[in-house]
Amino acid sequence: MSIEVSMHEDEFKAGRALGLDHRKLGVWLFLSSEIMFFGGLLAAFLHYKINNPSPAEHALLDVTLVGINTFILLVSSFTVVLGLDAIQHGNRRRLVLFLGLTMLLGAGFLAGQGNEFVTLYRHGMTLKSSVYGSSFFTLTGFHGLHVLIGILWAGLTLRKAAIGRYDDGRYTGVELFGLYWHFVDIVWIVLFTLIYLT
Amino acid sequence: MEATPKTSSGVRTYALVFTVLAVITILEILLSQPGVGVARQVLTPTFLMFSLAKAGLVAAFFMHLRSDTRFYTYVFLFPAALLLIFALLATVR
To answer: Interface pTM (ipTM) of the complex?
Structure first.
């Protein structure tokens, strides 16, 4: 009996009494709050897009270029899961390689977004030009900020991987970074459809 | 950090999921080109379904919701459902 209680206590301390890892649960709860954050911005954008349309500004959006950017972000999600799979098989060098690729792809996405912003500004669509412009730049800008934070997180994860903090039995840090990165990818999938395609 | 139970789907599954995501994205770009000849009333729901499918695939396979504890799915889906309600309300004139 006392052994059972002690085991349960250990499980509780490890945060797994309910079969949940407390670190992972923490990240999932954070991501659910992020859904509400982007939900508010997205609702504002849709409201303005529908009730105060700006077809001239909408026509300035380059779906093909942003589609390529979307593809870059999808590839980066793929490299993250390849990195996770690598470390789960004890291959630290491949993890470092894939995290490095993820950072490069993330930077490529930001470069594409920066290019888009500059082009739109040159055509007169700015943060202040209309409610459409305001809500567009706020929404996509905050997403870009999340990508930037993801790149920094990837860098920290890469550093830990490089100094041997992860192996085939210890890779939760990689998984947690992956959850964030894939979430940012999902947000972009939704934004790409609602802003550019519809 | 000690690892949580393994949830990997395997490289082959990841590659398959990525291929589907890539094909859908290419389709989206092609369908969005002017002069495709498909009515907007058809395109909009198609794009929305594509988006839902892509988001679902990333969440299920890349974020491992398919194989991980079900509770994480509920934590993720509850605000997502609220978002959907907000988005629908936002479209009301």
So the answer is: 0.88
